[in-house]
Design goal:
Layout (H helix, E strand, L loop, with lengths): L1 E3 L2 E3 L4 H37 L6 H4 L1 E6 L7 E6 L4 H6 L34 H8 L4 H19 L1
Antiparallel strand pairs: 1-2, 3-4
Length: 156
């Protein structure tokens, strides 16, 4: 017990407080990683509806590189792994209309605007910008939802 300005101060449970702070930090770390994973999945799913299709190789090459999702430094990369992925993504003047998946050699009717379903340039950038245009509110909402799930599992 200590005297502060004529008031007795009794500090009890510092160990318990430290444990509670640590438990919240772990829960929050897991929730943030899961929320970022949810965001990446939403971006990837939206991207799959926009990626140009000729042979289907570009669409099939999408993958996620996830590291540290349960650490304080989560990272997620969404990648398209063909040699021409970047070229298709950046060239606005290419013919990007949808094709049936195996119509190599057929030309589309003309360039399409970014965000056009069935095939367009910026097929990854457009969904990323859509997702992040609502930040920080949307990310906070994702984290809160995941934190609720993490806490509910901890009680189960």
């Amino acid at each position: 017990m200590a005297k502060r300005g004529g008031i007795d101060v009794n500090v009890l449970g510092l160990r318990e407080l430290a444990e509670a702070i640590e438990a919240n930090a772990r829960e929050m770390t897991v929730a943030i990683g899961a929320a970022l994973n949810d965001a990446a999945n939403a971006i990837g799913d939206a991207s799959q509806t926009l990626v140009p299709i000729d042979t289907g190789d570009l669409k099939a090459s999408m993958n996620y590189q996830r590291t540290g999702l349960t650490t304080t430094k989560p990272e997620i990369e969404i990648r398209y792994g063909t040699p021409y992925a970047l070229y298709q993504h950046e060239k606005l003047e290419l013919f990007h209309p949808a094709r049936d998946g195996n119509s190599a050699g057929r030309r589309g009717t003309g360039p399409t605007a970014p965000g056009t379903a069935g095939g367009s340039p910026k097929y990854l950038e457009f969904p990323f910008l859509e997702e992040t245009s609502q930040y920080p509110q949307k990310l906070v909402e994702r984290i809160r939802n995941r934190l609720d799930l993490v806490r509910a599992r901890g009680r189960a």
